[in-house]
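TASK: fixed-backbone design
INPUT:
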């Protein structure tokens, strides 16, 4: 997802103006495929641009900027809280904020933002449900490099006599490389599973007209 605003964000004051704007019923609110924004850790420095599919859903750029600003502040622990209240964990603060924006603005416009940790939903009435969305893997490049393959090839050639001993060691080299390739594949899969499991990210989804709301705290 291309990035837009870059830099430190300041704390906004008062409830978002978007909450007091009724949905524009003349908009088509057309369905769209889920869109992954980016890891939560990146949102502070690089605010994702508003997906164009949200334009027919009566979402304006200033609405998106305010939403993403609030999210960045919540993730970094800078969102104002009522006097005497304890500062919530970043993931909890973001989940509550996403629910609030969904209830107050997005869902009436047939849009839902979903916070995921790994493949588990952390927001909405389906919180706790595990989704198998391919887009949740976006941005995880754990593929094997060609340099690794070259190093293994040269090491095996040296072990089995170089190119002069190709005929004698061909089957042994082939078996050894296949074994190494399988071990690397299993290692990458384990590493990918660990990375996905601890990864927080936001996904923009189409919300059908019957999408239920979820209770969320009042905007502070």
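OUTPUT:
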């Amino acid at each position: 997802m291309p990035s837009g605003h870059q830099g430190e964000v300041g704390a906004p004051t008062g409830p978002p103006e978007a909450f007091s704007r009724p949905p524009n019923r003349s908009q088509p609110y057309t369905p769209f495929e889920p869109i992954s924004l980016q890891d939560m850790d990146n949102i502070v420095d690089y605010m994702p641009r508003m997906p164009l599919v949200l334009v027919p859903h009566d979402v304006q750029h200033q609405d998106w900027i305010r939403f993403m600003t609030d999210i960045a502040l919540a993730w970094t622990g800078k969102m104002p809280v009522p006097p005497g209240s304890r500062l919530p964990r970043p993931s909890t603060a973001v989940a509550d904020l996403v629910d609030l924006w969904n209830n107050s603005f997005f869902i009436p416009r047939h849009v839902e933002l979903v916070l995921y940790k790994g493949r588990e939903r952390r927001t909405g009435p389906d919180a706790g449900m595990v989704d198998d969305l391919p887009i949740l893997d976006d941005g995880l490049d754990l593929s094997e490099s060609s340099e690794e393959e070259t190093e293994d090839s040269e090491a095996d050639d040296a072990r089995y006599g170089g190119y002069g001993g190709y005929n004698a060691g061909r089957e042994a080299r082939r078996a050894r490389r296949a074994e190494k390739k399988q071990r690397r594949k299993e290692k990458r899969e384990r590493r990918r599973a660990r990375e996905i499991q601890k990864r927080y990210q936001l996904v923009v989804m189409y919300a059908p007209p019957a999408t239920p709301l979820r209770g969320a705290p009042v905007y502070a």
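COMMENT: The chain has two domains: 3-136+200-206, 146-195.
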